[in-house]
Amino acid sequence: MTWFTYVAVAVAVLAYADGYSVGAPESACKDMIPRHPVPPQKTAAPYKITTSTKVVRAGTPMEVTISGNKPTDTMRGILLQARKGDDIVGTFTLDPNDSFAQLLNCGAPGNAITHKKHDGKLDKQTATFTWTPSEDLDGEIKFRATIAYNGAVFWVGVESAPVSITH
Hints:
CATH superfamily: Reeler domain
Radius of gyration: 17 Å
Organism: Papilio xuthus (Asian swallowtail butterfly)
Pfam family, one: Reeler
CATH topology: Immunoglobulin-like
Structural class: mainly beta
Subcellular location: Secreted
Helix content: under 10%
Order of helices and strands: HEEEEEEEEEEEE
Keywords: Antibiotic, Antimicrobial, Disulfide bond, Immunity, Innate immunity, Secreted, Signal
GO biological process, one term: innate immune response
Number of helices: 1
Low-confidence stretches: 1-20
Strand content: 35-45%
């Protein structure tokens, strides 16, 4: 390939990946795979998902935090859901003025969070969100995320430890 071809391909990849800089599309809800023209990373993600509690009563809000392992492990984009098996459960709440995240409808309003279009200097190393299990939910859930360092470097299926929902 010529130098021009490399540059043209790089520009096309970045332009395509930037197309979802406004957040994950609803088409990514089920498999959580962003529609970037590159595959996900195969290495362990340099991020973790932690929760404010390991047991929560149905209908009671709790916090979930995504954080990079090092200060340089920032997030350009995310898709975060709570899953009971393959089902997306519960509801997130956000400050409407949140500069990084927005609610996404993955079958029900607010049952997922994705990123907003933002300047790179607003990438986050840590982001905390409030999630509430529905009144009729019980059993065990896990939070699952796709986390993008940038448009070409992202991890799919980052999971929290289990959280038990009680009545």
